[in-house]
Each structure stands twice: as C-alpha cells, then as structure tokens.
Write a structure and sequence with these properties.
single chain, 461 residues, alpha/beta, Alpha-D-Glucose-1,6-Bisphosphate, Chain A, domain 3, 7-stranded mixed sheet, 23 strands, 23% strand, globular, Phosphomannomutase/phosphoglucomutase, magnesium, A-D-PHexomutase_C_sf, metal-binding
Length: 461
Amino acid sequence: MSDARTSRTTESVAAVVKAYDVRGLVGEQIDEEFVGDVGRSFGGLMRSEGSTSVVVGYDMRESSPTLARAFADGVCAQGLDVVLIGLASTDQLYFASGVLDRPGAMFTASHNPAAYNGIKLCRSGARPVGQDSGLATIAGQLVDGVPGYDGPSGTITERDVLADYAAYLHELVDLSGVRPLTVAVDAGNGMGGHTVPAVLGDSPVFTVRSLYFELDGSFPNHEANPLDPKNLVDLQAFVRETGADIGLAFDGDADRCFVVDERGEPVSPSAVTGLVADRELAKNPGATIIHNLITSRAVPELVTELGGTPVRTRVGHSFIKAQMAQTGAVFGGEHSAHYYFRDFFNADSGMLAAMHVLAALGGTDKPASELFADYERYSASGEINSTVADAPARTAEVVAAFADDATDIDELDGVTVSLSDGSWFNLRASNTEPLLRLNAEAPDPARIDALVERILAIVRA
C-alpha cells in the first residue's frame, strides 16, 4: 500500500469527494497529485471489477487538460489503458462510456466559478459512481493510501468522438421533417459552444444564432448556471432581438439545457419534462417515466393521463439513474433541467432534451409559448435557499404551522407537505452548506406568493 498523504484528513477529503462527484478549488483542494491519486484509486477499483480501460474527457477550464492527464497517468499506474477524448461535454463523455462500454471520468466543475474543477465518474455503460457505489472507497484511500499495483502500466491513446456523438443523437431524434426554426443558443462560454455546432450546425432547417460560444473557462460574460435567473437575462434579450422561435441555454459542461420561448420567457423544466414524456410515451405506450419529488405535479398527472406509469424519486442523478435501471423507465426529468434517457444509457443529456423540444416545436405551427402552455398547470416558486443554523428545527416549525391544513406529509427527501387546496411544498437541507431549500407549487400565482411568504417568515425568523 502506498503512503497516505500526510496533509490529508478525513475532513479535508470529505470537503472535495462529495455525494455525486469530486469537486473543489484548484490549487487549494485539488491539484495534480490529488487527482493522480483519485485516478489510481478509481483505476484499482475498476480493475477489481474487471475493467481494462477508462475513457477520460475534460471541459474548457484552464486547469482541465493538465488535471485530466494526471488522472490518466494514475489510472495507467494501475495497469488500465486510457482513451482520452479531449474536449467534451459531460453527456459526450457518457456517450463514449456507453458506446465503448468502459468506465469514464469527466473533468468539470459544471456551473461552478472558474476557480473550481472536479471529476464526474461513471462505470462502463455510463452507470453512476456515487458515495455508496465507489466514492466512499476512493475517499478512504485518499486518506489511508491507495493500494499499489505491481503489473505493467497501461497506455494512453487519443480518440475524437464528437462526430459519432452527434450522429448517435440524430439517430434518436429525427429532425429532418420539421419546419424551419431560428434557434438562439447561449453556451455561456461552456461546452455547448463545442457540441451545438456539431449537432445542429449543419442542419438545413435550423438557423442557429450563437451567443457566447467561445470556450472560456473564466466565464467572462456570466456564470454558466442557467438555473439562476440572472444568467438567462442575456439569452432572453437575444431571443427578442433576433426574433428567434426559441432559445436554449446550456450550463458549463452542457449536460443541462434550459428553454426560453419566443417572447423571451423562461420555460419551466417541469414543462420540458412533460413535453418529452409525452413524446416518449407516444413511442413507448404504457412506459414508466421518472420524476423527482420537486418536479411539478403536472408531470405525474400528465403521464397517468397518457397511460404511462409515473415513478417519484429523490433529487439527484444517482437516484434517478438507479430508478431508471430498476424500473426500465424510458425517460426521467428533474426540476434542475437534467433529463435522462433509456436510449442514452440511462444518462442525462441536455442536448438530447433540446432536440426533442426542437422536434416538437418544428412539428407544429404553434409558437413555443403555446406549445409549452399545454404542459404548465400550476405556479411554482423555483428553488429558494435560506441560510439557517438549525435546518431540522426550522423545518419542524414550518410543518407544525401547516399541520391542520396538511393532507399528506412524507419524508422521502427532506419533508414534503401537501395541502388541502392542491398546493404543496418541500423543504430539504443542503448536504454541504447551512442552507434550507424550499420548493413550492400552487394552483395560481396569488396562492404561491402567499404560501412562500408564510413559509419564509418562519424559516428566516
């Protein structure tokens, strides 16, 4: 067994090896030595499970190529070969893992600021690696020492899979017969600037209006996090200025896609989930659709009406992917604009979701606002974070305040309270920060405003 790094403690490693991935400040929490050891640990774990090769990709952050190479060297030290696919979106890495049937590692910190980087890991076939399925083992070895390997080192080869990725997506969604559309896209200086031209650039029916397509991990224009409304402002204005039929915004590693209609109004990810579920159920009658517990209630209602089977799950990609595999679901959607597809190795792909949206819009004469109106039934708060010292105590106070009006209270993920007027809310404590996250939904805007005001008065007292 190799010597443990004396400067590493269980606490310092736990701050970086999180529930779903590895993520931290470059130079302070993550450096070449650290990711090299992650590579050796992951390589040893995958070798013990029978793998002989790992595929590695990275985003546009300045630190990504160097860190990815250090990780690859660590994997090779365990006797496994590495296929380095270079610049890639996270779903492009999942594609490579799925098609090549190899474990994968994607270097990205997604929507986090430029000073951060990290690693998303998966087993062969893009199967997730989470805290309970490998990350805890890796974290322990980063403190105690990574077991050595006495055999020959693996080799590193390079392979470009971008064109194959684009072709695969077009096999899943036929865009050839749709009406011409002008599509405004804000790549946020992230990997959408790499994948959108490959997937949509040569289309005879789409005119792509590009915004911030230059790959720049310093994010000079705005954070690559479209979940925050302030980062959609430029796209909203761009849609109006260009007269686009629809707008798409991708996060930093382009695994999430957000939609803006022709008026520049944001479309709820729940509405996108409903639309894609509708399309998937048309191809797969009676199929199962996954939705997390803070997705709009409109989604399970719609799925049921269409003859499908809705399955509710916790928030987080490892839970969604596990449910996808267990139930054979054809599709899954989250409020955060992660969309999962059985035909895409049960993995999430913002680009594939975007193609479904374009196919639906291009197959109708309706403007985007009317198309999505069919999938919007309620008013939602969006996710509202509050800094609290004692999240369990504040949650208990809120639940007690609504006890007389509650028709159901469950604790699948945090606490979800359903109310007699059809409203509901969920309170979840962050795993990593002193935050309490509120998501709520009501039949109309007035009731959602009143509900949120009442809850926050207790949470922030």
